[in-house]
Write a structure and sequence with these properties.
36% of the residues lie in helices and 22% in strands. By secondary structure, the chain is an alpha+beta fold.
Length: 157
Amino acid sequence: MGYATRSRRATVLLAGLLVLPLAGCSAEPDGAAGRQAAEKRTPAKQQPRPAAPAPAPANVEKIGALTGCTPEVRVQAKELREGVCTTAQGSWTVTTFPEEKFKTIWLDSARMYGGTYLVGPRWAVGGKPELLDSLRSKLGGDVVRLRDAAPGSAPSS
């Protein structure tokens, strides 16, 4: 391949990279075109789902307090902290992680046992699905059902 051909391809590639960020721009102020398009796609009778609260902070005691319990901390390690809550509603575990990567590793490991968890940023709450559904209104997060699967695959929800 000659210098002229490589130079022309590089110029075309560079021009494409410069134009690409402009593709999402709109002449409408504040994204009005996007809102109008969304309004056309959304049926008038459809009611929006109530938003879950902002996810709870990654702290065993704070998550416990939000759910109405004082957790008994049973694991305190560099990678995680775990506490157990027991109330009239039932019992559940609260596990928090100093970094998101530790949560991901923990969920991959927990997959071999299965189970259902309420998962938020740097925390997971384990318990019965109906209990987790009620705790979700207090904590936010997503209910995730883990099944035996290959390590490294994404949790199913």
